[in-house]
């Protein structure tokens, strides 16, 4: 069974950009661009740690 919880790895670094942001995994070298909404979620996860994906709408509106 898969866990419904998500969080950021300690190996992930991020940088804000005009379109959203860039995420970089220091262990693998993988890099992805994300839009503004996804980058806002990254910042929220960084703030709260781990979140249940089934409660993201509640967390989002209470942040």
Compact description:
The protein is of the alpha+beta class and 63 residues long. The protein is built from 2 helices and 5 strands; from the N terminus they run E-E-E-E-H-E-H.
Question: What does this molecule look like?
Answer:
Helix content is 32%, strand content 33%. The protein is of the alpha+beta class and 63 residues long. The strands form 2 sheets. Strands 2-3-4 form a 3-stranded antiparallel beta sheet. A two-stranded antiparallel sheet has the order 1-5. The protein has 2 helices and 5 strands. The chain has one domain (7-62). Strand 3 and strand 4 (31-35) form a beta hairpin.
List the helices and strands and how they pair.
Layout: E1 5-6, E2 12-17, E3 20-25, E4 31-35, H1 36-48, E5 51-52, H2 56-62
Antiparallel strand pairs: 1-5, 2-3, 3-4
């Amino acid at each position: 069974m898969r866990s419904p919880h998500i969080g950021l790895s300690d190996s992930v670094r991020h940088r804000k950009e005009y379109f959203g942001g860039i995420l970089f995994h220091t262990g693998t070298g993988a890099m992805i661009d994300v839009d503004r909404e996804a980058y806002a979620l990254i910042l929220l996860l960084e703030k709260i740690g781990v979140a249940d994906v089934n409660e993201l709408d509640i967390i989002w509106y209470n942040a």
